[in-house]
Write a structure and sequence with these properties.
Mean pLDDT: 79
Radius of gyration: 20 Å
Structural class: mainly beta
Order of helices and strands: EEEEEEEEEEEEEEEHEEEEE
Distance between the termini: 16 Å
Largest sheet: 8 strands, antiparallel
Number of helices: 1
Shape: elongated
Number of strands: 20
Helix content: under 10%
Length: 295
């Protein structure tokens, strides 16, 4: 079964599309394994509203970060979902990033400048970059011919797309080359399967990046701190993040198949901490909302 958190009262499909079959019946389980958490704001970042944080205001030469409590286990599969806001000025700068970093520090990046999006110099780290400005003076950061508003998976505090620390991308955030500095909140979803090492990045429900990543090796620990950074330079935009959820889950909690004899029963039990549970289809199940169900 895959586990994801509900959004606006609804339940989303399983994170990795894991469908488990039993006695020729496909069975799905959805559950929330995360919750909205507190935060630590750094630099220009501040609390914007309930469960929302402004990482930079729309002003020049700002840098900020918001870090969520932890550390969290990064040896197990996880999903992170958030609503991200990248401003209203299509000619603004510079963008923001989702990070998982070593839990020993909550500082901003040590490398200044808007193009570093607040994460420059944070090492070790794993980064999902949401870059909204083309820095023509440094084509390694924004290669010529690539979309201005792009995504990438990076590491070790470097914005370079040509260094060994670059893991995937860049690709347009919304194809073919849509503007994401549009005054709207956008869905960001990052998943990682510990069994396969596959990391997926979704933007507005579209799969945009895939890479095989050894997350603990990149971060240099079995636990990490996660959060968001952003910065501005000579041009600016407001950068915000809302409704951040970290959902640890086991994508293989149900067996692929199980043989049953007529008249026998089988019971499935989800891990401790699962909530907002829905089992489907309901036919023959003892419950559709309990953590443990019998067929």
């Amino acid at each position: 079964a895959g586990f994801t958190a509900p959004a606006s009262g609804s339940i989303r499909p399983p994170s990795f599309g894991n469908m488990r079959k039993l006695a020729s019946v496909a069975l799905w389980a959805w559950a929330s394994m995360g919750s909205l958490l507190g935060q630590t704001t750094v630099g220009a970042a501040s609390v914007w509203s309930t469960d929302c944080y402004q990482i930079t205001p729309n002003a020049n030469s700002q840098s900020g970060a918001v870090w969520f409590p932890g550390p969290v286990d990064i040896t197990s599969s996880f999903e992170m979902t958030a609503q991200v806001y990248l401003g209203t000025n299509d000619g603004g700068a510079d963008g923001m990033a989702f990070l998982i970093r070593n839990p020993n520090s909550l500082s901003l990046g040590s490398t200044p400048g808007g193009a570093n999006q607040g994460f420059g110099g944070i090492t070790p780290s794993l980064i999902v970059e949401m870059d909204t400005y083309t820095n023509s003076l440094n084509p390694a950061w924004d290669p010529v011919g690539n979309p201005a508003d792009h995504l990438a998976i990076l590491s070790n505090g470097s914005p370079s797309h040509t260094a060994a620390s670059a893991l995937a991308g860049p690709v347009s955030a919304v194809p073919p080359n849509a503007n994401i500095e549009d005054g709207q909140y956008h869905d960001l979803r990052v998943t990682w399967d510990a069994a396969t090492g596959l990391m997926h990045v979704y933007f507005d429900c579209l799969l945009r990046l895939e890479a095989t990543v050894d997350v603990p090796a990149v971060v240099g620990a079995d636990n990490g701190i996660y959060g968001f950074t952003a910065s501005t330079g000579g041009l600016s935009n407001a950068h915000r993040v809302c409704d951040v959820l970290w959902n640890p889950f086991d994508p293989d909690v149900l067996p692929d198949a199980l043989s049953m004899c007529p008249g026998t029963e089988v019971t499935w039990t989800l891990p401790t901490g699962a909530s907002d549970i829905t089992w489907s289809p309901a036919d023959g199940l003892s419950s559709t909302t309990a953590a443990s169900v019998t067929l």
